[in-house]
């Protein structure tokens, strides 16, 4: 059956310019849903999964069981059966030119999607209600998760998505509560009992929600403290790390940094950089003897173990600290966080290479996003070094931000 075969007397046709809407006279479920083959039943199951009240026809074609050139006929036949049984309405758009009197499906509007699911025994409503109860009962212990959990309680999600996000956040809450530190695979094993179960979509959703995995102590690879310095480091027993090793740049466990009791060697300054290629550039200068700096790489939003190791290192080095991060709102926030750690150790710090002219900001062609603008307004409410305040105001004027690496390409 095709749309041209429908009994139009059983439909109300509402016309407007360039479009019409077919509304069945029968109420949803007043007539049985008949004449579907097995593939159409499977297609209907796919169509009913999303939570929305309407679906575009192009999406419905793409999500049908028929993947050949017969997909359109397969879907149109199913659509006719749904219209006959009163379960949906159809919005059509008129063609152009000579085809202006020929209307094609544009969007299907469900009249009672959940009722159809129940009638077919496919309803997920009981499971949704059970999950909603679990969301309501769960109160995250870690403050970083409270806002995300509150949003999830109000959000309309598919059952599988709701179940997965609840499990992910509960696992993350335990991870943070235990102050664990590890790789994405290790975290995935703990939460999902499989090292590769943490999906790209999970990470993107957490990032969009404003949560940094790095700050939670979860990194793509084994987390280390990256350091370059022309220093000999001693623990309680004796020599722990030789300058010949450190000057070339070393990836150290945070525990090793915390084991250092004193350092020997000339330290004129401590330079902290966010971009790893910039860290490598300054490591080469230390290795060649051009620089007497201690160079440290800060991995995005730093975890508590990194912060503890860095604070300990700063306490051992009687030298000013210079912090250079990406010229974006996140970079400013990281610089402030590093600066606070320095101040707690009674040392001075200042931003470094985080002030550029507005033409340079535009040069990177990296526009601010909505979340960036909100972050900037939040940061401007804080007490800031002049360089960072000027940078944020320049971002607002230009609408652009800049990666740190661009400043060190020459």
Topology:
Layout: E1 11-16, E2 19-24, H1 38-48, E3 54-56, H2 57-62, H3 71-84, E4 88-94, E5 103-110, H4 113-120, H5 125-137, H6 146-154, H7 159-177, E6 182-183, H8 184-192, H9 200-208, E7 218-219, E8 225-228, E9 232-234, E10 239-241, H10 243-246, E11 250-252, H11 254-259, E12 262-264, E13 269-273, H12 276-287, E14 293-297, H13 304-316, E15 321-324, H14 329-344, E16 349-351, H15 358-363, E17 366-367, H16 370-380, H17 386-398, E18 400-401
Parallel strand pairs: 6-7, 13-14, 13-15, 15-16
Antiparallel strand pairs: 1-2, 2-4, 3-5, 4-5, 8-11, 8-14, 9-10, 9-12, 17-18
Helix pairs in contact: 5-7, 7-8, 13-14, 14-16, 16-17
Can you walk through the features of this model?
The protein is α+β, with helices and mostly antiparallel strands and 410 residues long. It has 17 helices and 18 strands. InterPro entries: DUF2399, Spo11/TopoVI_A_sf. It holds the Pfam family DUF2399.
| Second rung of CATH, namely the architecture of the largest domain | 3-Layer(aba) Sandwich
What is the CATH topology of the largest domain?
A: Dna Topoisomerase Vi A Subunit, Chain: A, domain 2
Major β-sheet profile: 6 strands, mixed
Strand content is 15-25%
Low-confidence stretches: none
Q: Which geometry do the CA atoms define?
A: elongated
Structural class: alpha+beta
Strand tally: 18
Which CATH first-tier class of the largest domain would you pick? Alpha Beta
Strand order of the largest sheet: 11-8-14-13-15-16
Count the helices. How many? 17
Q: Please compute the radius of gyration using only Cα atoms.
A: 30 Å
Mean pLDDT: 89
Distance between the termini: 68 Å
Total separate domains: 3
């Amino acid at each position: 059956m095709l749309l041209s075969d429908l009994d139009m007397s059983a439909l109300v046709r509402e016309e407007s310019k360039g479009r019409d809407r077919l509304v069945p006279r029968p109420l949803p479920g007043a007539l049985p849903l008949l004449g579907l083959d097995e593939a159409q039943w499977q297609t209907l199951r796919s169509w009913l999964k999303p939570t929305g009240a309407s679906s575009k026809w192009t999406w419905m074609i793409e999500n049908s069981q028929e993947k050949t050139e017969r997909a359109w006929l397969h879907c149109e036949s199913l659509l006719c059966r749904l219209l006959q049984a009163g379960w949906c309405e159809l919005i059509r758009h008129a063609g152009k030119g000579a085809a202006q009197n020929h209307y094609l499906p544009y969007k299907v509007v469900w009249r009672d999607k959940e009722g159809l699911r129940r009638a077919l025994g496919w309803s997920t409503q009981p499971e949704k209600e059970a999950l909603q109860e679990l969301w309501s009962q769960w109160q995250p212990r870690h403050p970083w998760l409270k806002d995300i959990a509150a949003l999830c309680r109000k959000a309309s999600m598919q059952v599988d998505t709701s179940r997965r996000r609840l499990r992910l956040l509960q696992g993350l809450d335990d991870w943070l509560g235990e102050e664990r530190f590890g790789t994405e695979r290790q975290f995935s094993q703990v939460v999902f009992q499989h090292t590769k179960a943490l999906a790209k979509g999970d990470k993107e959703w957490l990032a969009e929600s404003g949560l940094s995995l790095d700050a939670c102590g979860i990194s793509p690879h084994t987390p280390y403290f990256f350091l370059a310095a022309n220093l000999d480091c001693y623990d309680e027993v004796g020599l722990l790390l030789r300058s010949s090793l450190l000057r070339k740049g070393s990836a150290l466990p945070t525990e090793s940094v915390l084991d250092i009791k004193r350092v020997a060697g000339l330290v004129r300054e401590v330079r902290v950089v966010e971009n790893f290629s910039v860290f490598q550039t300054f490591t080469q200068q230390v290795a060649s003897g051009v620089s007497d700096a201690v160079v440290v790489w800060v991995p995005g939003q730093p975890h508590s173990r990194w912060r503890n190791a860095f604070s300990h290192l700063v306490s051992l080095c009687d030298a000013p600290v210079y912090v250079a991060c990406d010229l974006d709102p996140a970079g400013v926030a990281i610089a402030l966080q590093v600066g606070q750690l320095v101040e707690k150790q009674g040392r001075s710090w200042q931003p470094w290479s985080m002030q550029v002219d507005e033409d340079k900001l535009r040069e990177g062609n990296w526009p601010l996003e909505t979340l960036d603008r909100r972050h900037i307004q939040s940061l401007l409410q804080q007490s800031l070094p002049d360089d960072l305040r000027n940078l944020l105001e320049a971002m607002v004027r230009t609408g652009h931000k800049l990666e740190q690496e661009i400043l060190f390409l020459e």
